[in-house]
Specification:
alpha+beta; Serine Threonine Protein Phosphatase 5, Tetratricopeptide repeat; SH3 type barrels; 3 domains; two-stranded antiparallel sheet
Length: 259
């Protein structure tokens, strides 16, 4: 009888220990979740990969690599709208990444809406393309390098032996200071773009764009998943949007997701 009590006590203690260990099990690290997502993607379990990557996103993780991988998983799953959304988010953080640009272009091939954009002034387009050659952090580093060289040249200008050499150092320093300013402005512009929330992607199969923010409003055109829009304003569950050709209208906010 005494032996049965001892065995019962041991069994109860073991069972309690197992439950306690399960409840107090340490959460997985981000590296472990990332590895799990990569493994799921490698074997074609795209839903599993999305679930793991989304858990990282929901925990507050933000990176172009995370959004790029999510875009890849959604693309392989066949969710074009979500794929474009995450490629756009990745490109927003790293506009110079060629892999992101390539995959985004590949995903856009599968969209139904082929909208011609309003022509941009060629100089504006050139400046924007130049700005997007580097990331915000990279432009900030470039501006600091230009500034340091400018300061060094101004010191050489002050202590130069001849008038011609001082003039040369001064001119180069002024040019570099101008480049410093432009680099800083590029960095600031990209940082503001990354934190902005005025662009979105249609994620529903079909989104009806209406003339007013009401279900009874006239439907003026239809957008399909993957189309990028600019958000102008919001009224309750409606968002006023503008598409690339300049047309505007109201769409349900639930039909789009902010980049």
């Amino acid at each position: 009888m005494e032996m049965k009590r001892i065995l019962l006590a041991i069994a109860l203690v073991s069972f309690t220990s197992i439950l306690w260990a399960q409840e107090t099990e340490a959460p997985r690290s981000q590296a472990a979740i990332w590895k799990s997502a990569e493994d799921a993607y490698a074997v074609g379990d795209f839903d599993g990969a999305i679930r793991e990557y989304k858990s990282l996103e929901n925990s507050g993780a933000v990176s172009s690599s995370l959004f790029y991988n999510l875009g890849n998983a959604f693309y392989r799953k066949g969710s074009v709208g979500k794929a474009i959304l995450y490629y756009e988010r990745a490109l927003k953080l790293d506009p110079a990444d060629q892999d992101i640009k390539h995959n985004l272009d590949m995903a856009r091939v599968h969209t139904l809406d082929k909208i011609d954009s309003v022509p941009q002034f060629i100089l504006v387009e050139w400046v924007r393309n130049l700005r997007n050659k580097l990331s915000s952090n990279a432009w900030a580093i470039v501006s600091l390098i230009f500034l340091a060289i400018s300061v060094a040249l101004l010191l050489l200008c002050k202590f130069g032996r001849s008038t011609s050499s001082r003039r040369f150092y001064f001119i180069i320093a002024m040019v570099l200071l101008v480049l410093t300013l432009f680099s800083f402005l590029f960095s600031l512009s990209l940082a503001r773009q990354a934190s902005g929330n005025d662009t979105a992607v249609v994620v529903e199969n079909i989104g009806s764009v209406k003339s007013s923010p009401a279900a009874g409003g006239n439907s003026i055109f239809v957008l399909h998943e993957g189309t990028k829009v600019k958000i102008l304003e919001k009224v309750e569950q409606w968002s006023k949007i503008e598409i690339q050709d300049g047309r505007q209208g109201w769409i349900k906010t639930s039909d789009i997701e902010v980049i």
